[in-house]
Amino acid sequence: MIRVLIVDDSALMRGLLTEILSTAPDIKVVGTAQDPYVARERIKALDPDVLTLDVEMPRMDGLTFLRNLMRLRPMPVVMVSSLTEEGAEVTLQALELGAVDFVCKPKGNSAGEMGIYAEDLIEKVRLAATVKPRARVGAPAPQPLTHRQPSVGAGMPSAQLLAIGASTGGTEAIKEVLLRLPPDAPGVVIAQHIPPGFSAAFARRMHQQTGLNVKEAEDGDRIRRGHAYIAPGDRHLRIKREGSYYVCQLDTSEPVNRHRPSVDVLFWSVAEVAGPKAAAALLTGMGADGADGLKRLRELGAYTIAQDEATSVVWGMPGEAVKRGAAIEILPLLAIADALLKDLETRYP
């Protein structure tokens, strides 16, 4: 039985989350709290397995509470976020501080929409219960880069492609890979399972925190060295070829593996247009999205990596890729960027 404590200043949200989670036979809501001060006492008294945490609360905001929690008593946390630009920014900071995942506050009232929301919330709480967070001492916010090192190759058409796919835990994992790429790296295309609005905030943070020019992909974007393109929430990102450029193509075709953007959709397109001129990594995430696409890339001569279990928040997607023989190598997160670059530099000096 997964024991959950709900922390939210809204009595309506506390009631809704309690009602949803109580429908799951393996989840028990052991208590609720209207602010972090009450939550602190109830964590001590009730010893929950998972916390759901509102971002905006009186007396102490969710981020301050989360920072203290991960330092003093690390535990799995699922953030409950508002569908606003500010809510997206704060949620990404929460993931940086150690939150396992997030759900947006429900925006629809229909039975169908609430049913999908309930499934998502229950699935993420179950997943969070399997994660063992580590204590974060200090957890300083990363310092934005004030400039990017000039490079002869940056901005030129990218002759090779780096493709990355991720889901749960992926925002931080992707950052660790991008941080380790040089400013003239081959063009990077990314599919991260993320809602609309949050992808733009994620792209801005990656642009500020890494040495690459990172943007939310737009239809028709030409892929250049030193640039990274993140699939927008609720859009598939495919890559096509136009002359000397690889080009981004967005669409709203049906979700694949329940996701749009789908990692498989991105990987399949990269396999078809770039083949051996690509290197790809499938990072932490729940489910199997990307495993078939990574296998297709390997079959067509691309270099493929699955993140290892020890450094993954969830070894679902990369683990499935390993089972299917899709990965040439299984590597810890901090070794992936160097391996991707080394492969392309060796084969295309």
TrEMBL record:
- What post-translational modification does the entry describe? Phosphorylated by CheA. Phosphorylation of the N-terminal regulatory domain activates the methylesterase activity.
Q: Name one GO cellular component term.
A: cytoplasm
- Which Pfam families does the record match to this protein? CheB_methylest, Response_reg
Q: What does this protein do?
A: Involved in chemotaxis. Part of a chemotaxis signal transduction system that modulates chemotaxis in response to various stimuli. Catalyzes the demethylation of specific methylglutamate residues introduced into the chemoreceptors (methyl-accepting chemotaxis proteins or MCP) by CheR. Also mediates the irreversible deamidation of specific glutamine residues to glutamic acid.
Recorded family membership: Belongs to the CheB family.
**Alphabetical keyword list:** Chemotaxis, Cytoplasm, Hydrolase, Phosphoprotein
Origin species, per record, is Caldichromatium japonicum
The gene is cheB
- Localization: Cytoplasm
**CDD domains from the xrefs?**
CheB_Rec, REC_CheB-like
SMART domains, A to Z? REC (SM00448)
What is the name listed in the Swiss-Prot or TrEMBL entry for this protein?
Protein-glutamate methylesterase/protein-glutamine glutaminase
Mind telling me which NCBIfam families this protein's record contains?
PRK00742.1, PRK12555.1
- Catalysed reaction, written as an equation: L-glutaminyl-[protein] + H2O = L-glutamyl-[protein] + NH4(+); [protein]-L-glutamate 5-O-methyl ester + H2O = L-glutamyl-[protein] + methanol + H(+)
Tell me the ranges covered by the Response regulatory domain, including all copies: 3-120
* Family annotation (PANTHER family): PROTEIN-GLUTAMATE METHYLESTERASE/PROTEIN-GLUTAMINE GLUTAMINASE, PROTEIN-GLUTAMATE METHYLESTERASE_PROTEIN-GLUTAMINE GLUTAMINASE
Q: Cell wall biogenesis/degradation as a keyword? A: no
Any Gene Ontology biological process:
chemotaxis
